[in-house]
What we know:
- By secondary structure, this protein is of the alpha/beta class.
- It folds into two domains: 3-82, CATH 3.30.1330.30; 90-250, 3-Layer(aba) Sandwich (Alpha/beta knot).
- Helix content is 38%, strand content 23%.
- The protein is built from ten helices and ten strands.
- Helix 6 runs parallel beside helix 10 (235-250).
- The termini are far apart.
Amino acid sequence: MSVxxxxxxxxxxxxxxxxxxxxIKSGREIDRLLVAHGMSEGWAAPIxxxxxxxxxLIKEVSPQKLDYLTGGANHQGIxxxxxTQKYYEVADILALAEERGEKPFIIICDEIEDPHNLGAIIxxxxxxxxxxxxxxxxxxxxxxxxxxxxxxxxxxYMRVARVTNISAEIEALKEKGVWxxxxxxxxxxxxxTDFDIPCAIVIxxxxxxxxxxxxxxxxxIISLPMLGKINSLNASVAAGILMYxxxxxxxx
Length: 252
């Protein structure tokens, strides 16, 4: 089984021409449209166009992958993956902070691909009082069943926004007075940073860390001291430590 297939397991999948058409018409929260290679013309074209208009990610896959994801159902070369929870806008996250009378506290996940990691981050973020999480539309775990299970109910209370460009969103947050800190092994010791300000913490990809362009947009790079023989922590563990550093700064 490929890593790509493993990442997409656990989503609610609706397959077949008519079920997919009705799911799109109903306005359901759709993660992505999957179309078998060679199916982009003919009757599938209007479905693809509607998804494109709604900003839904469209991905061409092999018929074999569709067979796997749909459990061998008669998918007719097309399927949609349904999110287990709706996505919010970044404005909704900032509005929640304002409603609570608190300084914004946001987690930005830069290409976190493991749904267990994303779920764990959501769970910790909710417990730490974060106002929301931002993820990219591409190269990221989505709000599937595995994420929901790993979040242990926290997804019901956490606002997750999905954006096209993380770097551009960081710029927009900075314009609104939010300080953005990227987590990377080459940064300043996180204990030297005062997080009692409107802030966002960027957690990078499990293998590559935060992207170069994303790092350049950050106001500062922070790191966790590594005193053992390994040089990095699991993304969700690192995120948890940094989130509670924000809690500690704000409780003084």
